[in-house]
Known about the structure:
The protein has helices at 33-40, 63-72, 90-101, 107-120, 137-149, 167-184, 195-201, 219-224, 229-236, 300-306, 320-345; strands at residues 22-26, 52-53, 56-57, 73-76, 155-159, 187-192, 204-209, 212-218, 287-288, 294-295.
Amino acid sequence: MAETKVVRAVDGVSIEVRRGETFAIVGESGCGKSTLARLLMRLLEPTEGAIAFEGRDIAGIRGRDLRELRRDMQFVFQDPFSSLNPRMSVGKLVGEPIETHRPELSRMQRRAEVARLLRTVGLRPEHADRYPHEFSGGQRQRIGIARALASNPRLVIGDEPVSALDVSVQAQVVNLLHDLKSRFDMTLVIIAHDLAVIRHMSDRVAVMYLGQVVESGPTDEIFARPRHPYTMALLSAIPEAAHGRAKTRLALSGETPSPANPPSGCRFHTRCPFAREDCAARIPELRPAADETRVACHYWQEIAATRPSAGLTPADGRSEGAQRRFALYEAATQAPESKTATNAEA
């Protein structure tokens, strides 16, 4: 009989998420970032290692303790079309976690809370009586976000929350998540492969390749001065206005190896244009580099010296058109909130 191969979708990953920040995990499809998100949420069971939330190891908790953990950690799924039960109204979808995690509220209080949450994400209270199929993709994702906020979580994990949406809607949802994070004092962990989204909303970022973190650090530093060859290749693939200078793209050769049979040594050496003979024999550790960044590469210093302009040009803010779009959206979402606050005070 053929030997059974074990796929290590996440292998030796160690990350730290700080309270109140937006932490992003990026990488190409199949790198293990979604698996990591589900491990953090305890939707998957880790085979080894520890998962600590606010100093408490949650890798082995069960039953009531796990149910209580769900109140503080919530998840926004990638697909707004399949993550909502089509047989349940929006009011029931958003009200279910309120009933589970806040049983002290009466039925009338729950309905009022559902209405408040819908207004918070830019929907109307009367939408509570409708069903998911009556909404667009962007509206369904707003319902998913309202459902995640219903238990007053301290941590929200978004698994590519805008990748299934039209480009015209992505900016609205990204801006909504950014605004809600500040308003509710939450910590966000965002999984994405769209680097433009990450650059806009995250404080720190970890880059994954074939189940391992190859570089991590502050977002501005990673985008301005990438040190790992894989990060350089990802950033060089982003379309960018060159401002009078030619952009040198770092092209990768070959296909991503199978996680069932990863390369020896550095897993990136089969595609790395800077690989040397010993890269196939030695496994690089994720070590401190500079400015709070960590890099898993034997020769990152020499590589960075040969490519001083491997990062993107500094972002001085959104374009004038983008600023107008975001301003209109913020006005639309804040107006109902202001009215709600006035009614509450009265």
